[in-house]
Amino acid sequence: MYSFDFERPTTVADAVAALSKEEAQALGGGQTLIPTLKQRLASPSVLVSLSAIEEIKGVCNDGGVLNIGGGTCHADVAAAAASDFPALAKLAGNIGDPAVRSRGTIGGSLANNDPSACYPSAALGTGATIVTNTREIAADDYFQGMFTTALEEGEIITAVKMPIPEKAAYIKFEQPASRFSLVGVFVTKGADGVRVAVTGASEDGVFRWTEAEVALNGNFDASALDGLSVSGDGMISDLHGSGDYRAHLVAVLTKRAVTEANG
User: Fold this and answer.
1) pLDDT over 60 at 17, yes or no
2) Architecture of the domain delimited by 5-49
3) Reading across the β-sheet that carries 207-208, which strands appear in turn?
4) Residue 103: in which H helix or E strand, if any?
5) Distance (Å, rounded) from C-alpha 124 to C-alpha 122?
6) CATH label, 167-261, candidates 3.40.50.2300, 3.30.390.10, 3.40.50.1100, 3.30.390.50
7) What DSSP character marks residue 113?
8) Which CATH number fits domain 54-163: 3.30.470.20, 3.30.450.20, 3.30.465.10, 3.40.50.2000?
9) What digits encode the pLDDT tens for the residues 33-73?
10) Which candidate, 185, 186, 187, 188, places its Cα nearest to that of 165?
């Protein structure tokens, strides 16, 4: 590690002011940033902790839309969503281990946009709206590639608005050590149709499998996906699995997610 200043504001306005300082970096739960600092892959001069800002914490059902504060930890999302949105509760309750779930936040995960993180698939799969201190961004416009989002410098995620679908399920094939998604698929069926969001597979990060969406809009059953597949080109290939293997998992897990969503 190295020396840096540390600030812990209690309001969004104070956090925005602190982040306007040169080389300042927002700190959510720290589950990604702190290891990055230890490896000297980042060197901010000021760390601005968002953990004391109560106004960006909490979960409520606002007329069929789950409004989740950006500073809400995974464990609290899992507990609060259990009755209204079980698929999201399952996703949040299976991130990392208890220590990670008690510290990591939904806003931090979405801001970092790790290509294997779980929350991006939920946001994209529900057609969520990412709320910041300055604007609202549709999930389809928010995710822009691996570790890349529409967030501007100093912008803070204050809330995530997720429409609660009629049916939903999240299935992931996880890396045993990290519990990140080797491949994860979030499927929803709602008033606006079917959405299929895939994480952990593509070099471009989370994406929608539109061909599957078209098939499932006609028949929301796993059999509608028979014969459909995604190409291994552009998929992540590493020691955990090849691009072709991940492409195969996309098709398999999507079928399982549809089956689970149908109960």
Assistant:
1) yes
2) 2-Layer Sandwich (3.30)
3) 167-174, 181-190, 193-199, 207-208
4) helix 98-103
5) 6
6) 3.30.390.50
7) T
8) 3.30.465.10
9) 887 888 887 888 899 999 999 999 999 999 999 999 999 99
10) 188
> Is-contact 67 60, C-beta < 8 A?
yes
Place of tokens 């291994």: 232
3-state secondary structure 161-199: EEECCCEEEEEEEECCCCCCEEEEEEEEEECCEEEEEEE
For residue 1, the model assigns a pLDDT of 56
Separation between Cα atoms, residue 230 and residue 244, nearest integer Å? 9
Residue 257: φ, ψ to 5°: -65, -40
Residues 155, 178: contact at Cβ < 8 Å? no
The whole-model pTM stands at 0.94
State both tokens at 112.
Answer: 């970092």
Question: What backbone phi and psi angles, to 5 degrees, belong to 158?
Answer: -100, -25
Angle between helices 86-93 and 74-81 (to 10 degrees): 150
Condensed to tens digits (0 to 9), the pLDDT of residues 223-257 reads: 999 999 999 999 999 999 999 999 999 999 999 99
Round to the nearest angstrom and report the end-to-end CA distance of the chain. Answer: 49
- Tokens standing for residue 79: 């507990």
pLDDT one-digit tens code per residue, 152-210: 999 999 999 999 999 999 999 988 877 788 999 999 999 999 999 999 999 999 999 99
Query: What is the crossing angle of helices 86-93 and 119-126, to 10°?
Result: 160
* The token pair that represents 179 in the structure block: 């519990």
